[in-house]
Description:
alpha/beta, TIM Barrel, 9-stranded parallel β-sheet
Amino acid sequence: MPKFSANLGFLWPDIPLLARIEAAARAGFVAIELHWPYDTPALDVRDACVAHGVRLLGLNAAFGDAASGDFGLAALEGRRADFEASVLQAIAYAREAGASAIHVLAGNVPQERKRQASAVFVENLSFAAREAPDLTLLLEPLNRRDRPGYFYSTIEEAAQLIEEVAAPNLALMFDVYHVAISQGDVLRRLRKFMPLIGHVQIAAVPSRAEPDEGEIAYGAVFAELDRLGYGGWVGCEYRPRGATDDGLRWTQSLGVRLS
């Protein structure tokens, strides 16, 4: 059975970050992942993880200027300085907090500028990979229903970028929710791209709630991950239907253990 981590960007959203770390540990998680923790000092996050016996896996690089519609910077033309500042911030924070991975967000790109944006993304990823040889940089395509203007939406696009950059510390974030909505055929894509996968995330399709409802048979997904020898973590990046602790009954219905 895979190992599960709590994504504290979505779980226990009504309490402060350090309290969310404690809540995750109390619920039985032994690993967590974050979205944008930068308002909380990295050493406080590290200390909370140590105190509660949980491992910090990863976090997102800053998304840029939300008021301007940014959702990542790595593929944006003319924003090299902004990207470098954001990724260096993420690298420094990850190292100080004890994380081992960073999700590098691409950003929103007009369809007619996609070819130029791809070259920008490759250049920026190369820079980030050189700056953080001790960290894993994760690429995650996002579905166009939720993020209609995002640079990429398919696993194949992310794999092509990894091939172009050819850095050993780049890997795929295989989010089953996004893959299912964008493309489907989840199990076949898991098999095909397993050598590139550095992290897996889950949520119900199409609701993005707990993974015990909807179109995806997560028991089959977990069994396939075991069959493929996946030794990494599965991030619970879902939006709870109600109270987070109540929603954790999905682990019983799917027959999994958090620790």
